[in-house]
Amino acid sequence: MEIVIVPSPEDGGRIAADIVCGAIEKGARTLGLATGSSPLHTYRELIKRHRESGVSFAAMSAYLLDEYVGLTPDQPQSYAHTIRTELVDHLDIDNARVFSPDGGAADPSEAARRYDAAIVDNGPIDVQILGIGLNGHIGFNEPSSSLTSRTRVKTLTERTRADNARFFADPADVPHHVITQGLGTISDAKHLVLIAEGARKAPAVRAAIEGPVSAFCPASVLQLHPHVTVVVDEAATGELQ
Ligand code: F6R
């Protein structure tokens, strides 16, 4: 595992964008995308490089990590909608090749199985961008998730619902369920890039990097992966030994 400590989140975005662009140059065709605050500097940097340096995503496909059950891509809080407005609409990637779990499916568990199969069939994902939750989740694999889990429906903890309430008009609107790639699914990607910023993330970063590999800290599964880059700002390293 490579740990890159950067002075600021903006520097972290540049490092993660270097990784993505370097992989594209070497022939990468599939990106894994996280939503939330952590990857925003990376996405802004990718948009900048597309506009100013002509980096092209035209040959790429992308798979989102997760989606809220009950939200469809036309709803602004859905992750499919969020990733379009924050990234996809500003690149030359074909929107039809940006895939997300079907949060509006009548049978979410079946939708999860289909999504996992699509990733297996079209993967492996070359570079998977990840954020980390305060409780150590990646994707929405909350603590106690099996380290070998596949894409499935999960119930959000109240802590995660509270953390994500900032994206909803009313905290009560945060869905209780999500479809998330499993830890096994995420681990199939060739290169995992975890981005963490801010002192709030320091305990989770420590548990993920220095703690035991355990379902109680889902991000600790990264310790088992052969190619991981953790990009952290100084604040997020505050609890490392
Ligand atoms: C979202 C996802 C989550 C977030 C995590 C951190 O697609 O996979 O694991 O990365 O909840 O969220 P932020 O970055 O908003 O702190």
From TrEMBL:
Q: In which pathway does it act?
A: Amino-sugar metabolism; N-acetylneuraminate degradation; D-fructose 6-phosphate from N-acetylneuraminate: step 5/5
Which of UniProt's keywords are assigned here? Allosteric enzyme, Carbohydrate metabolism, Hydrolase
Q: Where is the Glucosamine/galactosamine-6-phosphate isomerase domain?
A: 25-223
- UniProt KW Transport keyword: no
Please provide one cellular component term from the Gene Ontology annotations of this protein: cytoplasm
Q: Could you mention a single GO BP entry for this protein?
A: carbohydrate metabolic process
Catalytic residue positions:
D66, N135, H137, E142
Keyword Hydrolase carried by entry: yes
| PANTHER family named among the record's database cross-references | GLUCOSAMINE-6-PHOSPHATE ISOMERASE
Q: What is this protein called?
A: Glucosamine-6-phosphate deaminase
Which species does this protein come from?
Rhodococcus erythropolis (strain PR4 / NBRC 100887)
Q: What gene name is given for the protein in this entry?
A: nagB
